[in-house]
Amino acid sequence: HITPEKFYVEACDDGADDVLAIDRVSTEVTLTVKKDVPPSAVTRPIYGILGTIRLVAGTYLIVITKKKKVGEIFNHTIWKATDFDILSYKKTMLHLTDIQLQDNKVFLSMLTHVLSVDGFYFSTTYDLTHTLQRLANTSPEFQEMSLLER
């Protein structure tokens, strides 16, 4: 969900009530609940957050807008991110000079090119950041941690 003040990222899990709120001015990230999302927010589906990047115009949020299933590991689905959106925290570019606008446009173009190259994979249930060998040698406590905690 997008409002002029915040981005709200809502989980699609059954029974999940938590919503990630990202303040577009302070860049503060907090957890809130669904009822705090204003009804006026523009809503659209995303499949994940790739991250943030700071360019000339300010901070941008990079989100995954399309995905393709590429396989499974131990019954965990592996996805390939195939399309992205780059969302500006800033509501306007009026604070930039013509040269800064041009530089920002070039950096956005470079970023779009990098995102178009194959190689962005993710799983919502399996840890792709560790090798199978390393995972086999971790403690039971580590195995029980959520992917976010790892």
From TrEMBL:
Pfam families: Syja_N
GO molecular function: phosphatidylinositol-3-phosphate phosphatase activity; phosphatidylinositol-4-phosphate phosphatase activity
Domain of life, per lineage: Eukaryota
Domain SAC: 47-140
Its EC number(s): 3.1.3.64
Gene Ontology biological process terms, A to Z: phosphatidylinositol dephosphorylation
GO cellular component entries: endoplasmic reticulum
Keywords: Membrane, Transmembrane, Transmembrane helix
TM ranges: 46-64
Catalytic activity: a 1,2-diacyl-sn-glycero-3-phospho-(1D-myo-inositol 4-phosphate) + H2O = a 1,2-diacyl-sn-glycero-3-phospho-(1D-myo-inositol) + phosphate; a 1,2-diacyl-sn-glycero-3-phospho-(1D-myo-inositol-3-phosphate) + H2O = a 1,2-diacyl-sn-glycero-3-phospho-(1D-myo-inositol) + phosphate
First-level EC class: hydrolase
Official protein name in the record: Phosphatidylinositol-3-phosphatase SAC1
Organism: Geococcyx californianus (Greater roadrunner)
Designated gene of the protein: Sacm1l_2
